[in-house]
Amino acid sequence: MNPVTKNITFDVAKIREDFPILKRKVNGYPLAYLDNAATSQTPKPVMDVIIDYYSNYNANIHRGVHSLSQEATDKYEQARIKIQKHFNAQKAHEIIFTSGTTHGINLVANGFSAILKEGDEILVSALEHHSNIVPWQMLCEKTGAILRVIPMNEEGELIYPAFEELISENTKMVFLNHVSNALGTVNPIEKIIKKAHSVDAAVLIDGAQAAPHIKADVQELDVDFYVASAHKMCGPTGVGVLYGKEEWLEKLPPYQGGGEMIDTVTFEKTTYAGLPHKFEAGTPNICGGIAFGAAIDYLNQIGFENIASSENDLLNYATKKLMEIDGMKIYGVSKNKTAVISFNIEGLHPYDIGTLLDKMGIAVRTGHHCAQPIMDFYRIPGTVRASFSFYNTKGEVERFIEALKKAKSMLS
Ligand SMILES: *Cc1c(COP(=O)(O)O)cnc(C)c1O
């Protein structure tokens, strides 16, 4: 891979050549894929890695002495190192392959059931995805720990002073997302991590929505756990990453028992393998892990500065154009946000808008976006959400706005 430099020209037409799906038609119209916060599309170089795996070295890893098994093991472990470097983890064994963000959060929540006591407190933010709420509720039920919620404001931002009031010596853990999938808000995680550490609370950051746009440095953040999913980063579904500080991963018990995660097994006593294998029971998504590494290479080749600046241009342009539509209400207007726009048009149901947009080839998401507490805060059942990626174009934004106007006139 070439080192990324900032002045590589960003040519969106050329980038789109890497994504065969962007050429297809939907309901007779060219696809405008604006649902990137739900999942991203997969570029050819990542697909090539998947085909190469199944064509040339498909084998189970870590156990075989034969050549295919060794090749697969090497490629899988190289992918782990790519992920380690990307997030700047100190050690490769601090990178645990998971099936995705949800799996990573459940792994950590389950581990803490052995650590928390009755009356301990856990803080979550009001901006969370259900996968960063439900596992902690289950943990509280198991341990008698208390869940407290950091409130949000009308702009869709966390109220930091309220966090300062909630946190205390009783706080053992703090969980929040780096970027909200429903609103796009970027949370001030640096400040929150520092403050949490001042009372010795551990911090887990759900990076699912941030990782495609922001390169997180886990050492600089000094975060205890950081989780993400490959499928939002131009990789395949069914694979993700849990970064954990070595000292925490050593402390947590294994999540699942099975092959690969043991050292020795007898019916009297089993001893566990060291990191990272302790948390990787069973045959993993080998091809997925290798493809995740390729997706990270792909994003880095485009460059995160290029990604941020192109997505930001799309966000600003789309926001300006949307605001010209009568009855438009955008939810989540933080100055610090990624290219996600959640909105409603007065008097219209988001589902109806989404359905009509689809008839014109435009893919957006409608509903509560797995974040019902945010919808409850605004007292709405859901929103229409358009989310942009670096491979989207200004032309697609224009088509989206035109289609939205048409849908509005059909529904009013
Ligand atoms: C997508 C997402 C999740 C869930 O990720 P999965 O890949 O479905 O496990 C969790 N949190 C946020 C913020 C997300 O955007």
Please give a structural write-up.
Helix 4 runs parallel beside helix 5 (134-143). This protein folds into two domains: 12-40 and 303-411, Alpha-Beta Complex (Aspartate Aminotransferase, domain 1), CATH 3.90.1150; 47-300, 3-Layer(aba) Sandwich (Aspartate Aminotransferase, domain 2), CATH 3.40.640.10. It is 39% helix and 17% strand. It is of the alpha/beta class. The strands form five sheets. Strands 4-10-9-8-7-5-6 form a seven-stranded mixed beta sheet, with helices on both faces. Strands 13-14-17-16 form a four-stranded antiparallel beta sheet, with helices on one face. The model is unreliable at 1-7 (pLDDT under 50). Pyridoxal-5'-phosphate binds next to helix 4.
Summarize the structure.
The protein is an alpha/beta fold. The chain has helices at residues 12-16, 44-57, 67-86, 101-112, 134-143, 160-166, 189-198, 218-221, 246-251, 286-302, 304-323, 350-359, 372-378, 394-411; strands spanning 25-26, 29-30, 32-33, 95-98, 121-125, 146-150, 171-177, 202-206, 225-229, 240-244, 262-265, 270-272, 328-331, 340-345, 362-363, 365-367, 383-387.
Strand order of the largest sheet: 4-10-9-8-7-5-6
Strand content: 15-25%
State the CATH class of the largest domain.
Alpha Beta
Distance between the termini: 52 Å
Question: Based on the structure given, which CATH architecture of the largest domain is correct?
Answer: 3-Layer(aba) Sandwich
Q: How many distinct helices? A: 14
Radius of gyration: 22 Å
At CATH level 3, the topology of the largest domain is Aspartate Aminotransferase, domain 2
Class inferred from helices and paired strands: alpha/beta
Shape: globular
Number of strands: 17
